[in-house]
Design goal:
Elements lengths: L8 H19 L2 H17 L11 H20 L19 E2 L2 E2 L6 H18 L3 H12 L4 H8 L3 H30 L6
Antiparallel strand pairs: 1-2
Helix pairs in contact: 1-2, 1-3, 2-3, 3-6, 4-7, 5-7, 6-7
């Protein structure tokens, strides 16, 4: 067996972000995402000989390790944490108190609409069943190929395609449902 080239510090730093985002999208919990990300890279450092370039890319290996760690943690803790709402990740809200007053965030209408849309998409993705969510996060958000995602998920490429197709259909329906209540309330509960 050829000993794999040891990843450089800059390469490791570049790979932290996608692993963290994957863990965050899968759990909605910043603490758990940070913990799993740290564990992935500590394991890589301690057991770097386990990575075999002939079996796939370093990226797929890291995502696979992150996936396995997440599944073990979630299984052990038996908790699925809902995705945190935008602006509440650090315990604050839209108005944090400063000297007894609320700080008000003023955003242009386009930014408000964009922020609301992003929140809705995050909520919709986080509400998907884990196997579908995983396919969306890897292929659509992390822009992995089907082959890479299949290696990470430990399944066939056809399974990735099938899960992604079903996940996208569910997302379309969930996002369509987000618009219905606003239209219904504007007409006084009647639909046209």
């Amino acid at each position: 067996m050829i000993r794999p080239k040891e990843p450089s510090d800059s390469e490791l730093l570049r790979r932290i972000g996608p692993i963290y985002r994957f863990a965050l999208h899968m759990t909605g919990n910043t603490f758990l995402a940070e913990d799993v990300t740290q564990e992935v890279f500590m394991t890589l450092i301690q057991e770097r000989a386990r990575f075999e370039p002939s079996r796939g890319t370093l990226s797929a290996y890291l995502f696979g390790m992150g996936r396995n760690l997440l599944l073990r943690r979630l299984d052990r803790e038996q908790v699925y944490v809902p995705f945190l709402e935008h602006g509440r990740e650090n315990g604050g809200g839209n108005g944090e108190r400063k000297n007894g007053a609320h700080a008000v965030l003023v955003m242009p209408p386009n930014d408000i609409l964009r922020s609301e849309t992003i929140d809705r998409v995050r909520q919709a993705v986080s509400s998907l069943p884990p196997s579908y969510r995983e396919a969306v996060v890897l292929c659509d958000l992390e822009e992995m190929s089907y082959d890479e995602a299949a290696r990470v998920m430990g399944c066939a490429v056809g399974t990735v395609r099938s899960r992604l197709h079903r996940a996208r259909a569910l997302l379309t329906e969930k996002l369509r449902d987000f618009h219905r209540p606003a239209a219904t309330s504007a007409t006084g509960g009647r639909t046209s």
